[in-house]
Design brief:
223 residues; mainly beta; Lipoxygenase-1; 7-stranded mixed beta sheet; 16 strands; 8% helix; elongated
Length: 223
């Protein structure tokens, strides 16, 4: 009635249970990437000059402003002839130059002309050569013993672009970088640096990536 006795019961009692499938790991939420806050950028207009400050340090010239006529950068000192203007530049083929008053009262290189013949130093850039210009650096150093350097740097173009940068440098024998300019697809981007580097001319140039210049000493590039 009950059938023959089963011989597989010991096996069934002692067999291993199949392993339980582990639940999939819970997804790990990655923290949201912090958004970089970019400094606002303004474009210059003929009827509205822009003032570049640490809060808003950048302005962009249009293609017309960047490519027609010439660009003029002038340092207006509160005291005449208080300091010198020093210019470093890099061309599109990565050749670098430095123009200083030690070269000549009127020094030229690759479409640039640094003029120290008056009390107000200035740089003239022939924008006909804008395609070969990669970037510029504008720096100042005291004319004589250390003194406060106060005034304003103005950058203007034939096409109507105009930007102003306040200058207030504490007494120091070293170099202070006022501004940098970059050629970005035919448009010049002006950035106020307000950077009292305080070291030698060589230090200032190397701090801004002008490291292809041969130096006679820490203050004099080799011509």
């Amino acid at each position: 009635m009950y059938g023959p006795p089963r011989t597989d019961l010991p096996y069934l009692r002692h067999r291993r249970r199949p392993p339980r499938a582990e639940p999939p790991p819970a997804p790990v939420k990655r923290p949201a990437a912090a958004r970089r806050r970019l400094a606002p950028v303004r474009r210059t207009t003929p009827d509205q000059p822009v003032m570049l400050t640490p809060a808003m340090p950048t302005a962009v010239l249009t293609r017309v402003q960047s490519g027609v006529g010439r660009l003029e950068a002038v340092v207006h000192w509160s005291q005449p002839a208080a300091g010198w203007l020093i210019v470093a530049c890099q061309t599109s083929d990565r050749v670098q130059h430095v123009l200083t008053p030690a070269d000549a009262p009127l020094a030229t290189a690759g479409g640039l002309r640094a003029d120290h013949r008056g009390d107000t130093p200035r740089l003239l850039v022939d924008l006909l050569h804008i395609g070969r210009l990669d970037r510029l650096l504008l720096a100042v150093t005291p004319n004589g013993p250390p003194r406060p350097l106060e005034g304003a740097l103005t950058i203007s173009t034939y096409g109507g672009g105009r930007a102003g940068i306040p200058v207030a440098v504490a007494p120091s024998p070293g170099v202070a970088v006022l501004a940098t300019l970059f050629n970005v697809h035919g448009e010049l981007v002006i950035r106020a640096e307000h950077d009292p580097v305080g070291g030698t001319l060589q230090d200032a140039c190397r701090a801004y990536g002008y490291d292809r210049i041969t130096w006679r000493d820490a203050h004099t590039p080799l011509r």
